[in-house]
Amino acid sequence: MEETNREAVATAVQRVAGMLQRSDQLDKVEQYRRREARKKASVEARLKAAIQSQLDGVQTGLRQLHKALCDVKDIQNSLADVSKDWRQSINTIESLKDVKDAVVQHSQLASAVENLKNIFSVPEIVRETHDLIEQGELLQAHRKLMDLECSRDDLMYEQYRMDSKNVHDMNLIRSYFGQVQGLSEELSKQLWMVLQRAMVTVRRDPTMLVSVVRIIEREEKIDRKMLDRKKQTGFIPPGRPKCWKNRMNEFLEGTVSARIESTQSETRESDKMWLVRLLEITRKYVLDDLTVVKNLMVQCFPPHYNTFQVFFDLYHKSVSARVQELAAEDLEANEIVSLLTWVLNTYKSVEMMAHPDLQPECDVKQLEPLLPEHVVDDLLGKYLKTFTSNITGWLRKALETDKKDWQKETEPEADQDGYYQTTLPAIVFQVQPLIFLYFLLRCLNRICRWRLVIIGKDEEHMKDRQHPQCYVQYMIAIINNCQTFKESINSLKRKYSQSAEATQNDATIDKLLNEVAREGCQFLLDEVFLDLEHHLNDLLTRKWLTGSHAVDTICVTVEDYFNDFAKIKKPNNQEMTSEAHRRVVVEYLKAIMQKRISFKNADERKDGADRMIKEADQFKFLFRKLSAGEDTDRLCDSIAAIAEVFKLTDPALLYLEVSTLVSKYPDIREEHIVALLAVRGDASREMRQMIIETLNQNKPSSSTVSQPIFRDITVPSNTMTAMTSMAVPKLLK
């Protein structure tokens, strides 16, 4: 304490010495004294307030502790009273066992009273249900069946709760409701019968199929309820779970399998073309049935059933099983050719699983091969072995014939030039078409496998664009290989085939090679547009309006890629340039339709329109250069035509400008017009509606559009909602 006082005195002396360093400061001593007195009084007041606050807090804490102590004592006393009461009530609880039993019995009797009407009328309801099933009123029959099962299950549950070991009473209830289980089985037979004839039923009476599905859904819901109760109580009614949905799937699978197996109406003994007829009938049945499933049957099942995909997989599985059975038979050489041609070509073509009527739900790329690769190789090996044996036989026969000719007394035959010849060359060269046919069949199989390898390489590259390192160059080589294959096959055909007419195998291989080349070009363009994605996203934005260089970068990138693509042979390089041109313009138009910007005034509209016209000219110049001067104006002119709509200063003339745009591009739709007007930013709701309605009355036909541009351009639904709230019918479809 003394040390503190000394430090305080020393500090005070130092402060006073600092204040009185000059003589004129002595006149202010009184002023300094009063100021220091005020500071001292202020500090003392703050100290007193702080101490008082601490004392008040301590006092409050003590009061709360005292109160808590009293509460603890009260709780302790209450717990002691509760413990005392609980010990005294043990005997009382044991004496209430009779009351508990009475409550359980009352619950059972209440359930019996609730179901009393059904209990007394069980025989009558059973007869009515049986009659309804026979009359085909399946929904009503199922409703009565559910009432009977509910009454039975409630009574058995209450009996189980009261005395689960009382087997006699349980059997008594089960015996009284004994016919209910028979009704359930009778109804299920009707359901399976309808499902077995589903393809016919959905055409004639789809409501019957809907009723069957509703009944199965009800039973599935009851199954789940009963299983949940079993987890809680251990009780499960007789016959549960029925699992009718699983049985429905089994019957549908059996129906599809039987449908495929029923396609064989001929045998080799009765018809040499039996296999061709069988495969054609199978193709027709599968295509017709899947079309019915897509257009009619999916409407009879809930969406979560994924009905079309289920049937699609069932038919593929059944066809695969049937084809494997055929492959295991002792097929002749021509039958092997027919089977492999159908499996490798027809099945996944537009004639069957890729048919337009099945699109877009049907994705043939996801289908597993009908025949395993080793089975295809075995069939080809078998064909080659048979083919070699036949050639040997034919040559032996030709030599024997030629040998016999030597024994004739007549002169040998002469050719058209008068030279002698025997029948040997004619017989030998009859074999050439068969050799060429075998070569084509091998090509068909290898091209299918080659195509899968290419797709796999592209998927691998999309995961890691650094691998393979020379992806672009090898993809170009693959595209060129397709053209080389076509030229080589045509050369062989001219050399070895006796007929100049194109065969089905020729068309198949030509089509496959074109598809492989087209997919390769598509993969390369996807590579280009992955690099352009960021710059395409900048188009028609505020950043673009204020001076973005996105289009400059796009043009430089495309030209750089196409310097490499110049090594692609014709006609693939020309088609690729045209597709790149179309995609660039479409992406530009998509940027407009997505309403990334809405012009605020006439100056912005003019600046934006001028920029669009300039960029359209940039695209024209680029693709004229890439396409060696061919006409590329129509696609780019669509951008300039839209720019004229934005550039117009007099809104009263807006209809004329829009109608000019529609006349040039008839495939433009209502949502496109609404999006353009929204980007323009000054068209009122009434003006938009007037323009749409007027254009609808004078809409030109889009059926003759040779190069549609807007057809594949969609306007996002959220953008459309933000752009317009008016209820205008779909006018420009």
Short description:
The chain is mainly alpha-helical. The protein has helices at residues 2-19, 29-95, 97-114, 116-120, 122-135, 138-162, 167-176, 178-196, 198-204, 206-233, 244-261, 274-295, 307-328, 333-346, 373-405, 424-429, 432-463, 471-496, 504-537, 542-545, 550-565, 572-593, 602-626, 633-647, 654-664, 670-680, 685-697, 717-723; strands at 413-414, 420-421. This is Exocyst complex component 3.
Q: Termini, distance in Å?
A: 99 Å
Query: Could you list the spans in which at least 5 consecutive residues all have pLDDT below 50?
Result: 719-733
Q: Please tell me the overall pLDDT.
A: 79
Q: Major β-sheet, in short?
A: 2 strands, antiparallel
The percent of residues in helical segments reads over 70%
Helix/sheet category: mainly alpha
Strand content: under 5%
Strand order of the largest sheet: 1-2
Radius of gyration: 45 Å
Order of helices and strands: HHHHHHHHHHHHHHHEEHHHHHHHHHHHHH
Overall, the morphology is flat
Q: How many E strands?
A: 2
**If helices are DSSP runs of H or I spanning 4 or more residues, what is the number of helices?**
28
Structure overview:
One of its GO terms (biological process) is exocyst localization. This is Exocyst complex component 3. The protein has 733 residues and is mostly helical. Helix 3 runs antiparallel to helix 6 (138-162), helix 17 packs antiparallel against helix 18 (471-496) and helix 19 (504-537) packs antiparallel against helix 21. Helices cover 74% and strands 1% of the residues. The radius of gyration is 45 Å and the shape is flat.
